[in-house]
Amino acid sequence: MDELLAAVDALAAEDLAPLCGPALLERLRPLLVAQNRLAAEVARTVAECEVSGAAEHDGLTTMASWLRGHGHLSGAEAARVVRAGRALVHLPAMAAALAAGEVTGEQAAVLGTIAEPGKLTLAAEQNVDLAVVDGLLTGVARTRPYADTAKAVRHYADRLDADGPEPDPTEGRRLSIVRHADGSVSGRFDLDAVGGERFCTAIEAIVQAGRCAGDERTRSQQQADALVQLSDNQLASGGLPVLRTVKPHVVVTVDVEDLADPATGAGADAAQLGSGALISAARARWLACDGAVTRIVMGPDGLPLDVGRTQRVVPAHLRRAVERRDRHCVFAGCGAPAWWCDVHHVLEWANGGDTSVENSALLCERHHTKLHHGFRVQRRPDGRWHTWRPDGTEIRTGPGGAGPTNTGPPLVSAA
């Protein structure tokens, strides 16, 4: 591994400015092959991690969640890597092509869908020679773009279950949402015919109801506005499921001075959404026009943030303060949103711990349970949370987060 990293360092030290277009392309081609070969090693290692349950070492359930939290991959990319790893054992031709750098990790992942348990069962029932299919589809992947590979795989899947029972429409539904650094959201979805008809009918109703003279929005903008309006209507109706004893709502945190001062305008990111995205004070004032305003005082005056030993159950105002500070599960590598989480007493209430912001941590149900089985968390003076395994070694995240493991200080950590 040291030699590999040294080789990458040598590449990074090369000056590319003197190279012309053809020379740059010639340099790029073997880099892509190397990237594919590294993708093969990542997939192979992830597959072995799944077999051995390695994610449990860092308090996580699956390698997909580990890749998201520790490898900083998106949900879609983590799932792709896991899928490719699982397929290696069933598709040797694909595995060999990936290891040789002849197909991409993305192609390997889409090819890997033919090795899913359900499709393997159907292939066995119909006496399909999977080795032949593996060879044919890998041949397509070697010579054709990703889109053609995906089309060939889809064709095989359709032929495999051509005479099967009517599929459950919910099995084909997919919705992927990606939140970007600036708080904006993008995504894609796949719906069956009936589900898609319902969705389009609801969106079209709002689009048509909002038509007016002089509307210069494009069709796509109209539909996007309709989707936001549909969400607004559902939130306002009060009929959505309650999350952790709280009705779902949009959270905006802003200093009272910025909220009250109209001079603080669009140019300043003075407010923060529940997801952590920053918005202007002007936008926060606009949202506050028809929203409920809750005062959270992070100090000695106003609403107390420390109820001491008088009660064990965390009151609603204290939970809001903890959510404002932590935003999501504080266990290393986990990003579960606040509405999945419990407020945890770092020092157990029965052992003398106060019900206070200082003694509280936001933890999802799984990691709240982990802290009952030897894992520990602590918030340092710099405001960052640290997590330790039962053996005392610290869990570190990030691609380079393995490093030397530190033994944490003595901690008491229970609910």
TrEMBL record:
Gene3D superfamilies given in the database record: 1.10.30.50
Highest taxon of the lineage: Bacteria
Compositional bias segments (type: Low complexity): 404-415
Domain HNH nuclease stretches: 317-369
Stretches for region Disordered: 382-415
One GO MF term attached to the UniProt entry: zinc ion binding
Biased composition (Basic and acidic residues): 382-394
UniProt similarity note: Belongs to the Rv1128c/1148c/1588c/1702c/1945/3466 family.
Entry protein name: HNH nuclease domain-containing protein
Organism: Geodermatophilus pulveris
Taxonomic classification: Bacteria, Bacillati, Actinomycetota, Actinomycetes, Geodermatophilales
